[in-house]
Design brief:
Blueprint: H1 10-28, E1 37-40, H2 44-48, H3 53-68, E2 74-78, H4 91-103, E3 107-111, H5 131-151
Parallel strand pairs: 1-2, 2-3
């Protein structure tokens, strides 16, 4: 749940510690870091617990603001898919994620393909996907990220 990714919570603390350690290691080894981006896939448990979409968006904004304090410039979002057995359960969170793409200037939605995996038989249980689904969505996210960076004249 996004509540577990708020400032002071163990998941966010761990992410930020890992990010800071990676940056330190790179600097200590004379490896220049030009840009720092984050790829984010999260939200199914918020759908399960029926987190109101406005609350989800507000809390993710807090999370992203905290992450950006550690040097992340832009966040690329993979939209969550459907619950295999209840196709409507995650729609409010998916809608919030779609809106964040236009509401947050520092976040870009780069993949929505997980939404198609249940009907394509690429889910191994109500919540998780087969590796082929992750691979496909990863390819889509990578291509859309590259396209975004080219438009921004970063690549």
């Amino acid at each position: 749940m996004i509540a577990q990714w708020q400032p002071g919570q163990p998941l966010l603390i761990d992410l930020l510690n890992r990010l800071d350690k990676a940056k330190s290691w790179l600097m200590e080894n004379n490896i220049r870091v030009g840009h720092i981006y984050l790829l984010w896939l999260q939200g199914e448990s918020d759908g399960d617990f029926k987190t109101p979409p406005e609350k989800y968006a507000s809390m993710i904004r807090i999370t992203f603001d905290e992450i950006k304090k550690h040097g992340v410039e832009h966040i690329f979002l993979l939209q969550i898919g459907h619950h295999r057995d209840d196709q409507a359960l995650y729609l409010p969170i998916q809608e919030a994620q779609t809106n964040m793409d236009s509401d947050f200037g520092d976040m870009t939605l780069v993949s929505t393909c997980l939404k198609t995996m249940a009907e394509r038989g690429l889910m191994k249980d109500p919540f998780h996907y087969h590796q082929a689904a992750y691979n496909e969505c990863g390819e889509e996210a990578a291509q859309n990220t590259v396209d975004y960076l080219k438009k921004q004249s970063i690549l």
